[in-house]
Design a protein that fits this description.
2 strands; mainly alpha
Amino acid sequence: MKLDWKSGLGIAFSAVLLWWTLKGVNFSEVWSVLRTSNVLLFALSPIVGTCIFPLRARRWRTILEPVSGRIAFGPLWRSTAIGMMMNNVFPFRAGEFARAFSITREVPRVAITTALGSLAVDRIFDAIVIFAMMFAAMLDPRFPSGVTLAGRTVPELAQFGVAGMIALLILCYAMVMQAPRVLSLVRWVAHRVLPRFEDVVVGFVEKAMGGLAVLRDGRRFLAVLAWAVAHWVVNALAMHIGFMAVGMDVPISAAFFLQGIVALAVAVPSSPGFFGVFELSSVLGLAVYGVSDKLAVSWALAYHLLSFIPITIIGAVYFARLGLSVGTLSGKST
């Protein structure tokens, strides 16, 4: 987990975005909005938002079960909290590896490659649900018409994201349903590019594909999908409670739309916790609904900070209790 030039570039990128977002903002006006906001609703917003992490842990159990058997909720929850904490304090989604490593530490029968493969499936389901909800928000009669972002209409951007999500899902299905052919192709490539590590590469891919086993079972697929829907409905609800706290007059569908915009934005390498990226994407997304920069920035700064704190503290506590260290994770990831 060293701070190399790529990490520094991500942090610098976030700093520029944050500066760009805040450069024309009058902070006395932002403070006025926050000072007069509904404190109880703002306190409730991150509490509801933190509930998405136990939901993610429960979804993860269903994904892992076909290859690792039934796993107790505790290790899954602790590993998820640790992963989210690491994403908040280290760049380039370091928490994904930390989450996978943590579960192998508590449940040794789960191979690290299987854990990483399962997290890829986890993110694919996120994409399916987030973009489906984003597209559904555009069908709301209250969604503004004629809106463009980066020169493209919002539906065009959503269609691009959905197409990418479908392509990923097809690729995963191909890896599951045509596993022997995929492994033969991997072996052929490895033999020509890395002949000394041919068996290692093929073994890694074979174990990683184990995490995709959930796609073979229709009922399990639907169960994972249902947990993902619950996750992102709760996340949107937390956002909307924050909207109400600052007096923002937008429909709840705006939260489903905004979380899709934010998801697209945070895919870009940036600083730990996605500071700058979250704020700018929130301002741009809420501007679609005619929300002023003052109100959007006020909500984004407060919501981001308040939602950042609980899971970071919880994850740090579990990280210490499991006897993990940044050095250990660095050694395992290299």
